[in-house]
Design brief:
By secondary structure, the protein is mostly helical. It has helices at about 30-50, 50-70, 75-110, 110-115, 120-135, 140-150, 160-185, 185-205, 215-220, 225-235, 240-270; strands at about 15, 20-25.
Length: about 270
């Protein structure tokens, strides 16, 4: 049996030479930013190995949708919607669908207990995982966007706007995916919710809005990925209205903050059960 000095126990007190009781000095609490970076790197390394085949599936799926729509849509605003929507579908597939599955399985397998024992804030776990999955979508989204522009004859000059669209739309969708996975009582339900969310982003994002019924348009406006699609689609015109682009990106950012906050609360709730 090993004997641990009382002075090293958390909250313990030590007796000085004069008999006075002195409070033991505890180690500093883990800060958010270093913890977030550590979780981000670990999750990115894991996703690179485990999720690479699924990234190819997401990219090929979006490219196949554009090839299919090429026989229906010739150009104009409808082509812009198809290309922008297909590009954001890659983000939805990984950041929403796969992240919901990941957190659902993590909760069911007891993996949250491991994170709960680490000296990292709950926000660092959620933000690190969400950031890693959102970053993982960059190659597929860029490839899809370039292929779509070439296929439909759209300009490539404003492709740089994806630097803002991907992280902001990814944050909004990652927060929703993490919340679905952490709040779902069973991993099968988390997978179902992720699939439904990805399907909604696919149908409501790729199909031109002017061909949808009014009720479906309303549902489309409630989907955060719609604003990422709109922001990217607006840049295909000769003179984009950057105020509207910034407004759409601001909506994505606002939804991202709220959804990630909800996911952090859901993580705390699931970790203590």
């Amino acid at each position: 049996m090993s004997v641990v000095p009382a002075g090293v126990l958390p909250g313990a007190t030590a007796v000085g030479d004069g008999g006075a009781r002195e409070a033991a000095v505890l180690g500093p609490r883990a800060r958010l930013w270093p913890s977030l970076v550590a979780v981000y790197r670990a999750q990115l390394s894991r996703a690179r190995v485990a999720r690479m085949p699924l990234l190819f599936v997401a990219t090929f799926q979006s490219i196949g949708i554009m090839i299919m729509m090429r026989g229906v849509v010739s150009g104009g605003g409808e082509a812009e919607s198809v290309v922008a929507g297909s590009s954001i579908v890659v983000v939805a597939y990984v950041a929403l669908n796969l992240l919901a599955q990941y957190f659902g399985q993590l909760r069911a397998s007891g993996g949250l207990d491991h994170y709960a024992t680490l000296p990292v804030p709950p926000a660092a776990v959620v933000l690190g995982a969400a950031g890693a999955y959102a970053s993982f979508t960059v190659p597929g989204t860029v490839v899809t966007a370039v292929f779509g522009c070439v296929l439909f004859g759209l300009p490539l000059g404003n492709l740089w706007v994806l630097v803002a669209v991907i992280p902001l739309a990814g944050a909004a969708l990652s927060g929703l995916g993490a919340a679905c996975g952490l709040l779902a009582p069973r991993p099968e339900l988390a997978t179902l919710l992720g699939q439904l969310g990805m399907s909604a982003a696919l149908l409501l994002g790729v199909l031109p809005a002017d061909r949808m019924p009014e009720l479906v348009r309303l549902a489309r406006d409630l989907l955060p990925s719609t604003y990422g699609v709109e922001a990217y689609a607006r840049t295909f015109t000769a003179h984009p209205d950057w105020a509207f682009v910034a407004g759409d990106l601001a909506v994505c950012a606002g939804v991202g903050v709220v959804s990630l906050a909800v996911a952090t609360w859901a993580y705390r709730r699931a970790a203590v059960r």
